[in-house]
Records
---
Amino acid sequence: MDKRIEGFSKLTKAEKIDWITQAHFKNPTTAESQLSDYWNSDSDLQNKHDEFIENTLTNFYMPLGVAPNFLINGESYTLPMVIEESSVVAAAGNAAKFWQTRGGFKAEVLDTIKVGQIHFSYSGDVQLLHSFFNKNKTQLLESTAPLSKNMKARGGGIQSMELVDKSDLIPDYFQLHLRFKTADAMGANYINSCLECIATELEKLAQNEFKANDGVQLEVVMSILSNYVPECLVRASVKCPVSKLSPSKDWPGETFAKKMVQAVEIAKREPYRAVTHNKGIMNGVDALVVATGNDFRAIEAGVHAYASKDGHYTSLSNAYIKEEVFYMELTLPLALGTVGGLTKLHPMVQWSMELLGNPDAKTLMKIVAAAGLAQNFAALRSLVTSGIQKGHMQMHLLNILNQMGATQIQKEKAITHFKNHTVSVKAVAQFLQNNNS
Ligand code: MEV
């Protein structure tokens, strides 16, 4: 059957499924029931999900787990985490418990500035452009008044707008670089609407201004927010006397603290390690970002750009020992929202928000940063002590058992057995062979 199709998006859901399964699957009936098995029996709820994106056929489940005992700025939180990696929630919970008895996490928002840019080309005298911009700046900003009214009432709005000459990079390339505050919204729609409004006004004013000047042209290329937000920053930290840092009886606090600092030093200087180190941080960050309906691609892009802000990719976290006290901290750019987007639409996002006590955007930034730091601490703790595979494979045991079709009784026996034995695919297969009931 032909795998190309015209007008797919115009078909009904049933027609789409029919075509997809006929054209792409060996057994269309099985493929179709795999899709319908994941529909929600409540058709209103299913419709809601269908309408999030185009061409929805079914739902794709991810587990939502919780990590309790997070003490952040003296408040206790249970974190909702959406993630498929088996060891992440357990690691978060362990780190939270460890720090709960050592003062907990401290977190502070350093700033909440977001950025948007209008990229345009201009051929003409640069001084002329500067005086045109200065003359019309107020009018350009005022053109957004209807869009900004509510945002201003909530304490947000445009904070600054600058003309930037980038013609050393690309001939005739200039920008209007705008800084925004968006209160509790992530703000993408507000920022992009303001930018498009100013861009239209800019072209209109430029046409009038430059029409008499032969050859002088100003043309907007595009207007869009930036996901690079180095001024939308939150810092989370933990500290405790080195003597109280011991993670187990085999590891005195002094030895452990020194190894943790060494591990972070390596990530600061060695990009291969830094990427994995930061990936561990993002295990905690993304799980919460997804659970709270925020845009994890935007967060990922912004965080990794920030990790290379000084010209080389480095660790996002820092650790040091000063006067016998161990310090670990994490600074992240996090443009998060607690209103708008999916927050009112997705029932599980609402549930997650309620679990967190319906935080405002700044509080959510602090919680997410603490989750990232907890995850980083947990990963390094395993890496510098037992190694990562022991805990990781323990958590992965159920996945391996399920893949091998183990019965409930076999699973229970295996969990007991592997408490004292190393988990590997081979060892689990052998165990199932020896315990085949
Ligand atoms: C695995 O998802 C994350 C780690 O690799 C992080 C790290 O190495 O720091 C364990």
---
Amino acid sequence: MNHQPVEGFSKKTKNDKVDWLVNTYLSGNQEFKNILTQYWNDDKDLQKLHDEFSENTISNFYMPYGIAPNFLIDGKLLALPMAVEESSVVAAASKAAKFWLDKGGFKTTIINTEKLGHTHFILNVEPHKLLHFFNFKLKKKLLESTEAITANMRNRGGGILDIKLIDKTAELKNYFQLKASFNTVDSMGANFINSCLEQFGKTLKEEVANDVDFSQEEKDSLQIVMNILSNFTPDCIVRAEVSCKIVDLKDDSGISNEEFAWKFKQAVTIAEIEPYRATTHNKGIMNGVDAVVIATGNDFRATEACAHAYASKDGKYSSLTHCTTDNGIFRFWIDLPISVGVVGGLTNLHPLVKFSMALLGKPSAQELMSILAVSGLAQNFGALRSLVTTGIQKGHMKMHLFNILNQMGATEDEKQHFVTYFKDKTVSHHEVIAELNRLRTE
Ligand code: MEV
């Protein structure tokens, strides 16, 4: 296939975009057009709202929106909204929530809520001279020049917390940073932070240019490379935990309480010391976190990036969760760095996000942080519980059964047959195909 580049694609109507795509890449096959158009919503306003979330929208991409009930979090009983396509995630969360329901539920603590951003710049100057300029002149100007931008945020109790000059010249010639910390209250704050930082870049340029203590050569060497928030927020962190007596740690797989606690702790320790396992372990945690992040209209790429950077903070990729089994008490917790908002972004626009927020009792950003950490911890508990007892495939394949049957075009009667057939057996792809063939040839 060797196609010509398209001019003005974004200016075409939605119909024209679809026709162009189908004609150019799909041999004009109208079945492909139907695949796209069948998802268009009849409610024109609702469709327009979704179209306008992004650029060049040609259809809607459905994702299951499920509910994991029975989450007791800091004494409140919540039903968590989860947008996720992986079949076993909601089931695992629900099961873990139920397990901890009669054991006091999940407890959370907000450890800090500080967000960060940087102005990255190059300046050929003696670091001490720059530090003096920063402390006695620039810092005040940076704060003054952003007063208009920060006014609303300050009224809401947030704003710029501090600005520091960081000398990075040992790592890159003439490289310095203005490192700013922010409190963005109930918003994720990306636009607010980036606006402040871009103003810092401008102010820095002006102040260096007008300062008599810098030589012309030094002034000419200044390059503002970029101004951008950091998605790594190690000081925006929430702890979620569960604990109970080991004697109360009853698992229904037949394993003893002590063996369960021991194996579970071993599994966490393995993830703490072994990056191969830690990656999968943390992926499972993020199954729970991201599903709620998406359902509440937040940015799952940001939460993923932050979680994995934090998992490497000590120089080696490790587990986000931890476990102790001291003095007969099983304790399992997560420290999750996560920056989310409950105002701004999609939160007031997407109808399902509005629903999620209402369902969660209109949480503050801090309450949402707690809910997300709990969702991640619960997911990890569910995964490890299966892994150290029955193995993951039993539950996973049970949930996946309908995907396999749908792929095979199974009828409702056939599906019912399979539910009974696999009641006390582990589902496997091979077994489903064999049984379906047997059924159909009968
Ligand atoms: C699958 O999406 C996630 C798990 O692999 C997580 C884990 O192994 O802990 C089950």
---
Amino acid sequence: MARIFSRNVVEGIQFQDVSLVPIWERVRAGERLGHADGVRLLETDDFTAVGRMGDWKKRQVSGDKVYFVLNRHINPTNICVLSCTFCDFAKNPGDEDAYELSIDEILDLLDDDMHEVHIVGGHHPTWPFEYYEDIVKAIAEKFPAIDIKGFTAAEIDYFWRRWNIHPEESLARLKAAGLKSMPGGGAEVFSERVHQLLLPGKSDANRWIEIHQMAHGMGIKTNCTLLYGHIETLAERVDHFMKLRETQDESGGFLAFIPLQYQVGFTKLVPRHTPPMDDLKVIATARLMLDNIPHIKAYWVMLGEGTASLGLNFGADDLDGTIGRERIAHAALADSPAGLARQKMVRLIRDARRTPVERDALYNEIEVYAN
Ligand code: V47
């Protein structure tokens, strides 16, 4: 029997799933979406309509532009006191593949062309806080043109738990040393159920939010993330979006949201990673729900280059950066390359029929690559 599709075209979008039409009407009217809307967007098979809505919303914010940055991810150590069940990166001291980078080794990974360094590492059992401060100082001194984006809220909380250095103090000292912004990692999923199952012992949702709000209050911009595609439910993903949106209403310092697709690696919480259709719906739903966060990244390292480039038509306006030698996703067997050249970033963005814009960590434009 022939399958009959409805032919509902509303304001330029053809809907196969007519339950999305009221959502589209609210998006066009500039109204906030609710929890049920978010779940509907993630559930539906009409992913092209979801993508068109996400793209429309993206264009309201950044037009045709898609940002990228010449950057380098540096993970100073993989030695970590935690054993989060989704993480392949963390090692114990003495493990064959455990490593610790010296400040000179870190400086050797950077060069003058770069505009951002992203620093995230394990919760090291004995490295004093001053070592992190010295890393930031040394980079700021040798490479004044590189914006330093470093330390997840979970690491800032660990400095408190391990060394009794209050987050306000560690953030102030890191800022004085040269820290410009903070990455969004460590948020995982703001669900107490998931937290208990996957990361007991790591700082929880309230603490993550508190530290980001503290940073915002001190003029430090931050990013935010969601780790999805493991044991979380669709409703828990949407709860997470709503909490991020509330946080941003209050303190306003999030620059970008990055959906992190769970890399199955050796931890295998689920048999396979999420299919591209789900990744694209997560990007579009984030764009539509997070109406107060300006940038949404399609993180090519975890999504792969193809899905990331498609994500630029589903509401994402940022491809992150060239990255250099990424270790967290690659420890979990990500099959993307470890880094991409500037020309490759430009090509992925042009493939998506968008205008590449090179930026710094704070989204100041460095160069627009006219098409
Ligand atoms: O905090 C760990 C996650 C994060 C796995 O702010 C995993 O601009 C997937 O936060 N599969 C680090 N994810 C990456 C991160 C990030 C990346 C790019 C840009 C920005 C930004 C932030 O990766 C960790 C954790 O949430 N993670 N293991 C895994 N198996």
